[in-house]
Amino acid sequence: MKISASILAAKLTGLAQELPTYKQESIDLIHIDVMDGNFVPQISFGEAFTKEVKSHTQIPLDVHLMVSNPELHVPKYFDLKPYCITFHIETTNFSVRLAEEIRKAGIKVGVSLNPQTPPESISQILPYLDLVLLMTVDPGFYGQSFVKSGFEKIAAVRKLTKPYNIELEVDGGVNESNMEELARLGVDITVVGSGLYKTGDPNAQGKKLKELAVSVRTRS
């Protein structure tokens, strides 16, 4: 399982010093939460900050656009060549066109679902996707707990995506207590914030979380 480090939970003033210390055997991706104060009430990062992050690390970026009208924002991240650009299915009426535009730029396409959004809402766009990001908290509010219905919805989304070569990513309330169950459900990428940074050693914690996931898949 890949670990995507949500730097929203890090001490942002020290990122320039901390990012170069991240080891890819512990942290596979850097999760960038782009919030516009519209689709979600908070404002966080934009393309300038994301570019600055990229200048301090060789670890690929995992760009998550929590913004209205993502078609206006997506092209701003093409030059950064992230691992994936993810937009929310709730935010656009042009999801297929947007997905094709991202793929044309040589970047993986991700679509995200809020906790209350039914999995079936992405059924028509599945052939155009490389990744589905399932929110297990309401987007835009840091530090929430994993929603109780999260495991059932993960299973439903995995069933829906099974005929396609699509990665499943989970974001929200991920920590040691649920990592093994996420691995059992076939989750490919976990976005980890406070569950990664709480010990003060994200490399050691990332390795520990990955070992939990590997142990489950080894036993099965």
UniProtKB/TrEMBL annotation:
Cross-referenced CDD domains: RPE (cd00429)
UniProt keyword annotation of Isomerase present: yes
Keyword terms of this UniProt record: Carbohydrate metabolism, Isomerase, Metal-binding
Catalyzed reactions: D-ribulose 5-phosphate = D-xylulose 5-phosphate
PROSITE patterns hit by this protein: RIBUL_P_3_EPIMER_2
Top class in the EC scheme: isomerase
Family matches, as InterPro entries: Aldolase_TIM, Ribul_P_3_epim, Ribul_P_3_epim-like, RibuloseP-bd_barrel
Entry's family note: Belongs to the ribulose-phosphate 3-epimerase family.
PANTHER family reported in the protein's UniProt record: RIBULOSE-5-PHOSPHATE-3-EPIMERASE (PTHR11749)
Protein name as it appears in the record: Ribulose-phosphate 3-epimerase
